[in-house]
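Chain entry —
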Amino acid sequence: PNTNKTEDNSKATTNTKTDKEVLDIYTTLMNKAKKDKPGYKKVEYQELPSDAQNRVITEGSNLVGTLLDLVDQLDLMTSKETAEADPEIVEKGSDMRWFPVYKCEKGCYLTDVNAIESTNYEDLGNGKARITIELKDEQNPEPMAEGATSSPSNVGAMFSPLSKADIDNTLNGGVVSAVVKDITYSLTYHDCKAIVEYDTKTNEIIKLEQYMNVAIKADAKVILSKINIEKQELFNTMIITDFKY
């Protein structure tokens, strides 16, 4: 289950719009933002919850701490506290490289409505609306290459997932390969959701939220012992606010 909650807005009225209509709105909003280069504030962080619902270790549970220490050393994770204390502030007119979709010209490349699990459109009143798009599960989706015009995956067409190839390179070198051997793993991206609040008259974004949930399944040998991770959830949260067009 997705642990990400959106704020309640009791005044919101939900109108019936098709998945395609909502995707078209999202594409328009995101592509306009990339082109207009507004200023904004971005907070992005990752969580590896350890509760029984989100972590299932069938073998070698005593070694999980060792693995997570290695993850920390790889600098792949930013805590919520760190991200919120030091948000990324982008000035108006700046490079939009780290606004989704990362390293690409446009803000959305998804055109296949069949990739969508669900959508929602809410009229918030006062010329404001909120749309939500949730994608279907996808295994090992690759992000878009820098400057690409089409995506190798559905998740990559809207979000910026971790590249399995990049992870493989990290795992096979340096500090990790000295401790961890024979790694096999898969990443299932599930309940990936984008939520955009915007001005319906100007198509200017007020707030953008992106949530990527990744179920990691892995086998490895760690310090001569075997470890089997049936499931480890990784939650990636990105919230962009304070837009200045």
